[in-house]
Amino acid sequence: MESQKKFPKTFSFEFFPPSTPEGQEKLRATTRQLAQLKPKFFSVTFGAGGSTRERTLDTVLDIRLQGYSAAPHISCIASTTASVREMLHRYKDNGIRHLVALRGDLPSGLAATGEFRYANELVAFIRKEFGSHFHIEVAAYPEYHPQARSAQDDLLNFKRKIEAGADSAITQYFYNGDSYYHFVDECEAMGLDIPIVPGIMPIGKFSQLARFSDACGAEIPRWIRKKLEGYGDDTASIRSFGLDVVTALCDELLTNGAPGLHFYTLNQAGLTTTIWQRLGL
Ligand code: FAD
After folding, report:
1. 275 lies in some domain
2. Model-level pTM?
3. Which residue, 189, 115, 104, is CA-closest to 124?
4. How far is CA 122 from CA 178, 202, 222, in A?
5. Of 17, 43, 62, 210, which sits 20 to 30 A from 31 (CA to CA)?
6. Count of domains in the chain?
7. What is the pLDDT of residues 16-36, one digit of tens each?
């Protein structure tokens, strides 16, 4: 963890682009509430294959109009170089200088046709075409990506993204701090010297969390799963227990030198704000 301690702490909040005018209005209120916590930036997800491209850009522009920094995500799976280039030009023309660059996931059953296979190719493409214009964040997986052939392979693939020009990384969420410390130590041993900011998923609904975790390979430790299952439909107890667990994790991560936190807010301000206040940030 030594190398992480020298980086300034960066706090950020992630949104997905709303699909209705009501969702948009609600997100404006969420943004206003979370902006009071003074994050460095908000980020807005991007549907793989470009399914949300307009809404991602519109949401980023809307956040900026409200006076806050925002970074769009961009994914490359099932995309042509021409479509990615065009998207990047639109980001640049709109004054955007900060991106989260990903491979993305296609809905199951769809084959990946496109000119990019992996995120390192997207990062290299952005650097080749746009030089140092963008600050590029990439994804990191302390519990390893579910499709990785091995842990070592996944680490080497992470390294490719840094060597291609990524400036910093945000992790998949996890509830076991040791996986993050170990991952960061392995990156340090490989000579990677960028901030790796932990991604934090507040716990609101167990069924939703279980579904996300099955899809992305993030482990819910058995004791947490058992407790959450035991609460059944008692959402107040789930939220209360979840707040205790996630606040303790964040506190431990920051104490041990993590260079900030990135919250997967799911467009809700409540849990993130409570964790923030309990941390005394
Ligand atoms: P990659 O880094 O390309 O890795 C994908 C897999 O391929 C890994 O198993 C890796 O080991 C392997 N691999 C990588 N490079 C190579 C190579 N050169 N040769 C062989 N194997 C290789 N998804 C979205 O669709 N939209 C979003 O907005 C979005 N935002 C995210 C934000 C964060 C912070 C995180 C952590 C994830 C996000 N995701 C998003 C999910 C992400 O797209 C998926 O996890 C996806 O499966 C992998 O994306 P990646 O960029 O990490 O891929």
Report:
1. yes
2. 0.97
3. 115
4. 30, 30, 36
5. 210
6. 1
7. 999 999 999 999 999 999 999
Mean pLDDT across the chain, nearest whole number? 95
Q: 82 and 108 in contact (C-beta within 8 Å)?
A: no
Report if residue 1 sits inside a domain: no
Give the residue, by CA position, lying nearest to ligand 1 atom 46: 104
2 occurs within a structural domain? no
Catalytic site includes residue 129: no
| Mean pLDDT of all residues in 227-231 | 97
Kindly report the protein residue whose alpha carbon is nearest to atom 12 of ligand 1: 148
- In percent, the amount of the chain with pLDDT more than 90 equals 92
Within a domain: 3: no
Please check the confidence at residue 53 and state whether its pLDDT lies above 90: no
Which of 240, 221, 238, 239 lies closest to 229, judged by CA?
238
Atom of ligand 1 nearest to the CA of 101: 51
CATH number at residue 198: 3.20.20.220
Range of the domain at 76: 9-279
In sequence order, the 6+-apart residues with CB closer than 8 A to the CB of 136 are 99, 100, 101, 123, 126, 127, 165, 166, 167, 168
What is the longest distance spanned by two Cα atoms in the chain? Answer: 52
H helices of 66-140, in order, are 81-93, 119-130
Measured in residues, the chain has a length of 281
pLDDT band at residue 113 using 50, 70 and 90 as cut-offs: confident
Q: What is the pLDDT of residue 82?
A: 96
Instruction: Decide whether any atom of ligand 1 lies within 6 Å of the 148 Cβ.
Output: yes
